[in-house]
């Protein structure tokens, strides 16, 4: 094991399902991990559940410059370096047609999912060790459209552009930058989406999503974390500027 031995990993959205699963896996592979989220209670719950001496947290709103600077500073103060950055924080917004989508919700989704990724790249990557790895969580919604999810789809398309620019700009430091594109994942986010789409019977939305996946089920958070581990490790040292789809065949179904 120990594929991340002596590496320091920073994970935004660390209190969510994918963030927690990735933190657990990175710790098992020898990394020191800092998880970032805006919900202190949720972060403390993850700390208690994983119960690992190399895990710490920082409360931050990734859409705010000062908070971003603070989580970078805390990581460097504690560990002295950053080798791996999982730019993972994101929100789903609501499901409404573009003609009915509230502007305030659109602004919030873009602030977290797009500006938050931008700020993370702006303040984290220049502080990273040479040869480091950045993974940005996009979605299958970054590669195709989904009716009713205009803000989410726009934000997840947008982070691909940020990834490609960052991959170009930091290649001289041998820092690789890639996006991960999950299909539906068995997390609280999907429970909220299911209920938003079908308030009276969320299981109908779940069945509809599952039927759109060739494997007929949602991914588990650990399956996304496995891809993040590959990209964080030296096994991906020649991979940059790429989109990694983890969707059980959803995009070709």
UniProtKB/TrEMBL annotation:
- Family matches, as InterPro entries: NAD(P)-bd_dom_sf (IPR036291), Sc_DH/Rdtase_CS (IPR020904), SDR_fam (IPR002347)
GO molecular function term, any single one: oxidoreductase activity
Keyword Oxidoreductase set for record: yes
- Membrane-traversing stretches: none
Q: Does the keyword Lyase apply?
A: no
Keywords associated with the record: Oxidoreductase
Protein family: Belongs to the short-chain dehydrogenases/reductases (SDR) family.
Q: What is this protein called?
A: SDR family oxidoreductase
Which organism encodes this protein? Ulvibacterium marinum
